[in-house]
Queue: 2 jobs
Job 1
Amino acid sequence: MKFDEYTLHARIYPGLICAIPAILLVATFENEALTQLIHEVAGIEIAGKASVGVALFFLLMQLSRWIGKDLFERKLFAEELNFPTTDFLLASNTKLSTPFKATLADKVSTDFGLALPSAADEQGDETDARRRIKDIIARIRSVAGQAPLVLQHNWEYGFARNLVGGSTIAVLLSIIGAIVHFDSALGYIFGSCSIVFAAILLMSPTLMRRYAGHYAQQLLYAFAGDPR
């Protein structure tokens, strides 16, 4: 796994947060047979519960990304057709000012030899208009996606998406922990975790749209040479 700032902020940090109930369960688990099974499946050769906790963390990190990207993101943004980068460049969308959108249209035409869909194009076939914008955004990302502020907003969005993905697993493990340890202080900790991760899941559309919007704006600003 490539270790860079995106991996640290967008994958490891949300993975650590969502791994809290898993690590607590492993730390208090006494079934050595099941522990060894998890140990072997994860491919970790170091003995002991600590190694199983590390293995569970990396497994959870991968699952969080898969659930966040392949389930939540695809459903919410319809394979990028409804991603804010696409929405903002629709003729009917008023998020960006008319002069700024004209600047973007001119630059898209100059740099790529392409035209943003017109209002008539959008009214005639909005889905096709969105596909055309999606293709243009891919080109914009290739030339402006490495700008420092774009990268920052990219990992912020990745953090939110992967936190949402990991919360689906974390809330289930927290509920299991609350049931198993209902008569101890750990039961209250697991119960609190259940509430927190459930709240994240309830807020997931808002969280993902918010950070995706920030990323989309910064990407378009960077492409246009706008310093903000």
Note: The chain has a mean pLDDT of 87.
Job 2
Amino acid sequence: MSDIAVALLGFTGTLLAVVISYALGQRAERKKQSLFIRSEMLKPIEDWLKGAGKLVRLLGDRINAVVPDPASPSGGDADEWRAAANFVSENTNVVIGILDSKSLQTPRTRKLAAELELSILTIEQAVKYQLLPVESDFAGKSGLALETLRQAGELKLKLENELQNAYKLIATLKTSLA
């Protein structure tokens, strides 16, 4: 009887180990897929940041075009500005929705995701309420006050720093989600 009990115990132990291994494997695979999906959610955010970065670059071009020769401002035509502004505007809701969903937050990424959300909101507000109005000041004007140029330069630097911070946070998030 002891041989049968040992064999039954061995069989039960093996069966239990298989079931546990299968369950842990399934859980690990689900976690891996979840992290991959979260990582994919960063792509629209990166695209949006590229659009905002293009607006900042165009502002820099306008500043450079006005400073040396106030009689000939260019720095990106109106169509280029409009296209970049439309891209950012059209994709803002997608980006804000991803961030509001808190889907990027895991125990390891909670702080990074919150920082990224704050950075994106800062950029979005600055683009909407500062950069686009400044651009309209540049449009069609041959001479601008030095104060306007200084403020535009400060805005450009502020947005560049915030964009760099957002890209840093995305890179760190990607690493954490890998």
Note: Residues 2-40 form the longest helix (39 residues).
